[in-house]
Amino acid sequence: MRRTVRALFLSVLLALPASAEATFSIVARDSATGDIGVAVQSHYFAVGPIVPWAEPGIGAVATQSLVEVSYGPKGLELMRNGKDAKQALHDLLEEDPHPEVRQVAMVDARGEVASHTGAKCIPDAGDTTGNGYSVQANLMSTNRVWPAMARAYERSNGDLAERLLAALEAGQLAGGDIRGQQSAAIVIVKGKRSNKPWADRIMDLRVEDSPKPIAELRRLVTLWRAYRNVDDGDALVTDGKVEDAMKAYSEAARLAPGNDEILFWQAVTLWKLGREKDATPIFRKVFARGGRRWVELVPRLVPAGLLEDDPASLRRIQALAARAKRAR
């Protein structure tokens, strides 16, 4: 009898997927911008390639619990072919031999949401849907996790990334995964597809292994914002809007004050624009902190047109390194 029971149990396990994604996540559409996003945290290595899926102009999917990863690409395909989130999820559950162990949520480009928490998901498990979003969790330390996520998303201000992070932070504060923390990810895409696919994927950040993955994910989002301001500043310079560009560069430096890369390129741009007085203290700071590598990089920028082929000007920049060294 015991052998029969063991054999039956083993056959069930072998029929199920190998990985268990005990996770809390959120899928959402920003009604103000149309942007679509998904964010997730799990006590599982590298959750980013498994749970969150998103496609510009189509929607987002979170697939977790005893995970069937194909819900991600298949769900997006069904929505791409005209089905809304509810229809897409219904179709996938219908063809799944084990829907009782799945937890899946979808949001489409119109903001319609659908969610499913199978009856055999490891408790505590559940989901909550609201206007344009769904939060879901399984293997949680308490059933307060997903309601806390929903409240945080609804009450938070800021852009979609900020609201998704607020939901994850609230879920962790409410108890989170009963096993602890390990990895996290956030993906945000535009609600309308353009002819520039590289620009339609707004954010795709992952923390593969960390004792505090949500805090690390927030740090990466802040750094992403800093680099986004640098890109905006460069575009504004190209358009001749120098003062607006300076504001963008200053915001980038504020968000990432210890980042020599951002400061260096800000100084290079200022110098080329003839604003040596503004560039000088920035170069000094970079040279003092970053050492010779930044000094040696300066003349290499000339062939690319990033600095003028002016030996006297280049010497003035490089001389700032010696002054910075004496000032330390």
Automatic annotation (TrEMBL):
**Bilayer-spanning residue ranges:** none
Q: Which domain of life is it from?
A: Bacteria
Q: Which UniProt keywords apply?
A: Signal
Which InterPro entries does the entry mention? DUF1028 (IPR010430), Ntn_hydrolases_N (IPR029055), TPR-like_helical_dom_sf (IPR011990)
Point out the signal peptide segment. Answer: 1-22
What Pfam families does the record point to?
Answer: DUF1028 (PF06267)
Question: Would you tell me the protein name for this molecule?
Answer: DUF1028 domain-containing protein
**Which species expresses this protein natively?**
Eiseniibacteriota bacterium
